What we know:
Elements: H1 21-29, H2 36-49, E1 54-58, E2 61-65, H3 71-79, H4 85-91, E3 100-104, H5 110-117, E4 121-126, H6 129-141, E5 147-151, E6 153-154, E7 159-166, E8 169-174, H7 177-183, E9 188-196, H8 198-204, E10 212-215, H9 221-231, E11 240-244, H10 255-261, E12 264-269, E13 273-278
Parallel strand pairs: 3-4, 3-10, 4-5, 6-9, 10-11
Antiparallel strand pairs: 1-2, 7-8, 7-9, 11-13, 12-13
Helix pairs in contact: 1-2, 1-3
Amino acid sequence: xxxxxxxxxxxxxxxxxxxxxxxxxxxxxxxxxxxxxxxxxxxxxxxxxxxxxxxxxxxxxxxxxxxxxxxxxxxxxxxxxxxxxxxxxxxxxxxxxxxxxxxxxxxxxxxxxxxxxxxxxxxxxxxxxxxxxxxxxxxxxxxxxxxxxxxxxxxxxxxxxxxxxxxxxxxxxxxxxxxxxxxxxxxxxxxxxxxxxxxxxxxxxxxxxxxxxxxxxxxxxxxxxxxxxxxxxxxxxxxxxxxxxxxxxxxxxxxxxxxxxxxxxxxxxxxxxxxxxxxx
Length: 280
């Protein structure tokens, strides 16, 4: 995976021009009016010819983009904006100076960078080491000093697990092997990664309470989130949680029902995610 899309985390931002044929080609590959079959084939061709990296700004944030290897990078380059705009709008009211935002499944940082520039203290947790390197580059490119990066997966126990990801989209990485197998793609690969409970990770960073929590780990949300919520006192639970819900079929425990039992209510829903707020 890394060999196909090597990272450059050394050259200054601006080294790789994002304008010209590369941006035009990725804009074409992003056209929604094409059938999924055709779009996949156009994307494969564009990925071979214009794999990146490219340096670009989106909504005032700087990113070094590898569109051939990451869905979020493709969207940023093709559209010139952050992906998941509806989700960003839903959690923006909770992000302000003085709060702590914990981003589980941080990918290349679209949420972490946005939270940090709004004044929040940020802990970005990313399991894939190559993706974490690209995340760290993006943090430095934006001169953000209140963001810490933890390279691990979050789960119920300390240990290691197989992290499955595809070369064409390293941002879609999962600890759920069945989810990788059902995709039908032939470029899924597994690697062993460290796994730590959320409470352990927060303690290591001196975080007593995550005010806002994002959990986007492709079907492993229940095992990343619920053990933590069950063990901490009510006053240490996050005030708001952005939870990926589009892979709920792979949960072992219904996160939404459990959150309801703990006093959370859904205050915003998109196609892929739900925002929950804890009753005061």
